[in-house]
Amino acid sequence: MPMKPLDFDRRYGELDQVMGAYLGQPADDEPDRPSLALRAYLRHTWHSRPWALSVAEQQLRAYAHNPPGRLRQRLGEFYPVPDVGLAEAEIQGWLLLLADHIKQSVESGEVPRPSQLPETHWEWHARFPELGQFLGGWFSQDIPDEFTDHEAAVRDYADSTDRTLVARVVGEIRELLALELDEADYALAVAELGMELDPPAPHSTGSWLGSVADQLNGFRPEYA
C-alpha cells in the first residue's frame, strides 16, 4: 500500500523538491559545477527555507545508499525517481553528487544571490506560487467559455478565493513588478506562470498586472 503522507515526507519530502527542480531540465551536474536545475533549487531554498537544505542532503544520501528493493516496490512504499535522462546505473552516483553539492553550499555558507529572473519553470512557480495558481487557473485558453472578459475572471477569483491567498497574489504581483523588467520579460513571466491569453487592450503585460493588483486590493467578496 502507498506510504502515508507523514512517512513519505520524513523519508522523501525534500528529495521530491529537488527532483521537481529537474522536470524539463537536464541532469548535467558535474563535480565542479551544479546544473542549472540544482542552482535554481539552491538559490530559492537558501532564501525561503534554508533549514531544508540539510534535510535534502540527508534524504539524497539515504536514498542513494538504500534504493528500494523488490518488496518495497511491490508494496508501493518507495519514491520513484523521475526520468531525468540518466541510465539506471548512473542514478546512485548522480544523487550522491547532488548531496555533495548541497553539503558544499551549506558548509561554505555561500548563499546564491537572488536572480533578477527565475531561470527555470520550477523556479518561477516556487518563487510565485499563488500567482501561478491565479494565472493558470483563471487565464487559460478556456476563459472565453467561462467569463465575459478579463475583469470578470479577476472578479470571480476575488469572490471565490480566501482573502489571505488574494493578498499573497497581490504581494507576488508587486514583487514581480518591482523587478522593473522589460515587456518581453513580463510576457515570459506570465507565460511561465500559466497564462495562455494576451492581456486586454490597450494594456501591456506589465500595466495589466498592475491594474489586476489594484483591482484585487479594491474588491471585496460577495457574501450571500
Describe the structure.
With 224 residues, the protein is mainly alpha-helical. It has two domains: 5-108, no CATH class; 128-218, no CATH class. The chain has helices at residues 5-20, 36-48, 52-65, 70-75, 88-108, 121-127, 129-138, 143-146, 150-160, 163-178, 183-192, 205-218. The longest helix is centred in the middle third of the chain and has 21 residues, at 88-108. It is elongated, with a radius of gyration of 20 Å. It starts with a helix and ends in a 6-residue tail after the last helix.
Count of domains: 2
In total, how many beta strands?
Answer: 0
Q: Can you tell me the overall shape?
A: elongated
Average pLDDT works out at 90
Specify the biggest β-sheet: none
Span between termini: 44 Å
Unreliable stretches (pLDDT < 50, length at least 5) are none
Comma- or semicolon-separated keywords:
224 residues, mainly alpha, 0% strand
What's the SSE blueprint?
Elements (H helix, E strand, L loop, with lengths): L4 H16 L15 H13 L3 H14 L4 H6 L12 H21 L12 H7 L1 H10 L4 H4 L3 H11 L2 H16 L4 H10 L12 H14 L6
Summarize the structure.
Helix content is 63%, strand content 0%. With 224 residues, it is mainly α. It folds into two domains: 5-108, no CATH class; 128-218, no CATH class.
